């Protein structure tokens, strides 16, 4: 890997080499990256920037919004609406889609994002992040409607996240592997730090919120019980448990060193298929994980094959090291 390759240079070279990244998509990703830099700056200021605490409002899912949720959402909209690359946007923080205003040129892409994943960690200085997904607007549609966004995750043309931790790291896929970029604050640019990211097929680490154990379905209990039994149990090895409560941070750990992440269906809200949002969280993260050699299912089927029926659809998520995901999925089908 050559040294000091900026995101802009990486995207231009990828565009030249195989044509995988059209010019408009390249420009769109550069704009999203610039927005992430602005969000990173706000996150880093913390209490000094008067950005901590709640905003006294709720999003469409009835969740209390933090000030930074709203700031991040506005930054992404303002950065992307005027460039001419987009037709519309959708956000976890907005009720319906956001059409690019008529005063700006219309592009061929649709952008979806969770502006700040892991809101409960904002005020306690734990890693949070921005997740995004890009779809192509269906051809032959003069305007844009919500239905245009309801595409299976396999239709994504780009996806990624930016994690705001000890370093600010941007992780990207265009369907040809996964690359990581670290923000060089002195230079003001994202610099390529890892290419062809690979997730080990086996792991000794799992991530799940154990406080919900009494609400889990039998297959999830079976899997976790086997992990907890350690070297004396049926798995014949000891496992470590992790849970950061920011999906973006848990997935970043898995991309870095392997592991499995679970946010399963449980009995607290039996009518909901899961907690995480299919369009803003599960689809982009599942594609990244698959592109790095991992797997992602809802316990029964591949997440990227699920046909969405509504913008804020929820889903169960099991993703990470391939062999562990396949085991958990098998436990569900056996049950």
What do you see in this structure?
There is one protein chain. With 335 residues, the protein is α+β, with helices and mostly antiparallel strands. Helices cover 30% and strands 24% of the residues. It has an 8-stranded mixed sheet, with helices on both faces. The chain has a 5-stranded mixed sheet with strand order 12-11-13-17-15, sandwiched between helices. The model has no long low-confidence stretch (mean pLDDT 93).
Features of this protein?
single chain, 335 residues, alpha+beta, 8-stranded mixed beta sheet, magnesium, FBPtase, cytoplasm, hydrolase
How is this fold's topology laid out?
Layout lengths: L6 H12 L4 H23 L8 E5 L5 E3 H14 L5 E6 L6 E2 L9 E9 L10 E9 L21 E7 L3 E6 L4 E7 L4 E6 L10 E3 L10 H12 L10 E3 L4 H11 L2 E4 L12 E2 H14 L3 E3 L16 E2 L1 E4 L1 H13 L1
Parallel strand pairs: 3-5, 11-12, 11-13
Antiparallel strand pairs: 1-2, 3-4, 5-6, 6-7, 7-8, 8-9, 9-10, 13-17, 14-16, 15-17
Helix pairs in contact: 2-3, 4-7
Enzyme class: hydrolase
Catalytic activity: beta-D-fructose 1,6-bisphosphate + H2O = beta-D-fructose 6-phosphate + phosphate
Keywords: Carbohydrate metabolism, Cytoplasm, Hydrolase, Magnesium, Metal-binding
Structural class: alpha+beta
Major sheet: 8 strands, mixed
- The radius of gyration is 19 Å
Tally of separate helices: 7
Query: Outline, from the CA principal axes?
Result: globular
Spatial strand order of the main sheet:
4-3-5-6-7-8-9-10
Beta content comes to: 15-25%
| Regions with little confidence, pLDDT below 50 for 5+ residues | none
Please report the distance between the alpha carbons of the first and last residues: 46 Å
């Amino acid at each position: 890997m050559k040294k000091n390759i900026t995101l802009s240079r990486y995207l231009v070279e990828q565009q030249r080499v195989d044509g995988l990244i059209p010019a408009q998509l390249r420009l769109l990703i550069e704009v999203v990256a610039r927005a992430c830099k602005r969000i990173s700056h706000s996150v880093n200021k913390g209490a000094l920037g008067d950005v901590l605490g709640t905003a006294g409002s709720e999003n469409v899912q009835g969740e209390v919004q933090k000030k930074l949720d709203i700031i991040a959402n506005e930054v992404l909209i303002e950065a992307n609406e005027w460039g001419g690359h987009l037709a519309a946007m959708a956000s976890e923080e907005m009720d319906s889609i956001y059409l690019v205003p008529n005063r700006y040129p219309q592009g061929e892409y649709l952008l979806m994002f969770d502006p700040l994943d892991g809101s409960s960690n904002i005020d306690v200085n734990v890693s949070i992040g921005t997740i995004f997904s890009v779809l192509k607007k269906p051809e032959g549609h003069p305007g844009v409607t919500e239905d245009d966004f309801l595409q299976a995750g396999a239709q994504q043309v780009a996806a990624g996240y930016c994690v705001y931790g000890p370093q600010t790291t941007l992780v990207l896929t265009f369907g040809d592997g996964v690359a990581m970029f670290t923000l060089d604050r002195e230079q003001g640019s994202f610099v390529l730090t890892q290419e062809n990211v690979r997730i080990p097929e086996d792991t000794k680490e799992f991530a799940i919120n154990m406080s919900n154990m009494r609400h889990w379905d039998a297959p999830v209990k079976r899997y976790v019980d086997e992990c907890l039994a350690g070297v004396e149990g049926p798995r014949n090895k000891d496992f470590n448990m992790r849970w950061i409560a920011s999906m973006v941070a848990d997935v970043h750990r898995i991309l870095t060193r392997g592991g499995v992440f679970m946010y399963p269906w449980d009995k607290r809200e039996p009518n909901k298929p899961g907690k995480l949002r299919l369009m803003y969280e599960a689809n982009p993260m599942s594609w990244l994980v698959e592109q790095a050699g991992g797997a992602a299912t809802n316990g029964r089927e591949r997440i990227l094959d699920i046909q969405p029926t509504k913008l804020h659809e929820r889903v169960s998520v099991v993703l990470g090291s391939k062999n562990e995901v396949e085991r958990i999925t098998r436990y569900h089908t056996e049950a």
